[in-house]
Design a protein that fits this description.
Length: 295
């Protein structure tokens, strides 16, 4: 695994450029929303990636006693795995220092019609990596989810919330501010040499392609499928509004990335895994949230 070089004073440069935009709201309030983020770049490799190393695609590295996640008899797709000891840009030490996080999601279209999104994914956290073994695809595994095995590079990134996120709504953005938010994200990507519209990332503000991810995560937290706020009773409305403030982005996947061939699955937007702050602090990755959005 290689690491992008640390970009000195990159945050100050981003802040300076954001202040130059003609915001209707106080630009300092925008700056306060800027969060340090761990960017991810997928890289083709001609050599086999070692057991327990970070990667997208290929076969997962699991303990013998861990079953392949599934729902209604259909095995979940394996997106990739993150070796936490390889991450160097966790500014607030939010993640455990060691261990392996593996990410799976449902490719069964019926699940998206009938199941709660919270049940349509799985995050597996393995602390002791000494007994890992590479697991082949199980029966009934979707050919569309056989993603190319790719190395992962981590780099320093920063992010702003998406335009319908509660942080933005609290600032009472004008339509012009909403438009400037997209321009601001492009500036950040240009300064950090990312290039993608969405990109892959760990932590930070999610780059949603349909407005927001915290709201659907909060609905999942109270056991609901996607609904408008007005369809909920007052008690559930208050729970959703409160819970969305306490769920953080764990991993964002750009499904348009052709390097691991995520685009072969047919989704053109992003996949987002969220986790409540208290669960993240306690290393409880069994309780996570899921969202898939198409652009």
């Amino acid at each position: 695994m290689s690491i992008f070089p640390f970009k000195k004073k990159i945050k100050s440069k981003i802040e300076s450029e954001l202040r130059k935009l003609p915001w209707d709201v106080d630009s300092e309030k925008i700056i306060q929303l800027l969060e340090p983020t761990i960017g991810i770049k997928a890289k083709k490799t001609s050599s086999k990636i070692g057991i327990g190393k970070s990667k997208f695609g290929g076969f997962p590295d699991l303990l013998k006693e861990v079953e392949w996640p599934n729902l209604n008899g259909f095995p979940f797709a394996f997106l990739g795995q993150i070796n936490l000891s390889e991450i160097k840009f966790d500014k607030f030490n939010s993640l455990p220092e060691n261990g392996l996080l593996l990410f799976f999601f449902s490719t069964n279209q019926d699940d998206y019609q009938y199941e709660n999104l919270k049940d349509m994914h799985r995050v597996i956290f393995i602390v002791n990596l000494s007994n890992l073994e590479q697991r082949n695809y199980p029966e009934k595994y979707s050919d569309l989810a056989k993603f190319n095995e790719c190395e992962i590079e981590y780099f320093e990134q920063f992010s702003l919330p998406s335009y319908q996120n509660y942080k933005i709504l609290d600032l009472n953005f004008t339509d012009e501010d909403d438009n400037l938010l997209f321009e601001a994200s492009e500036i950040i990507n240009e300064l950090t040499s990312v290039g993608e519209d969405i990109g892959h990332q760990i932590l930070g503000n999610a780059q949603a392609v349909q407005g927001d991810v915290n709201y659907p995560w909060a609905l999942q937290s109270i056991g609901h499928k996607l609904k408008t706020l007005s369809e909920l009773n007052i008690t559930d409305q208050n729970r959703v509004l409160e819970n969305q403030k306490n769920i953080r982005l764990l991993l964002q996947i750009d499904m348009s990335d052709n390097t691991p061939n995520f685009s072969g699955f047919g989704a053109s937007g992003g996949i987002y895994f969220g986790i409540a702050e208290k669960d993240l602090a306690n290393g409880n990755f069994e309780n996570t949230y899921f969202e898939l959005q198409n652009s």
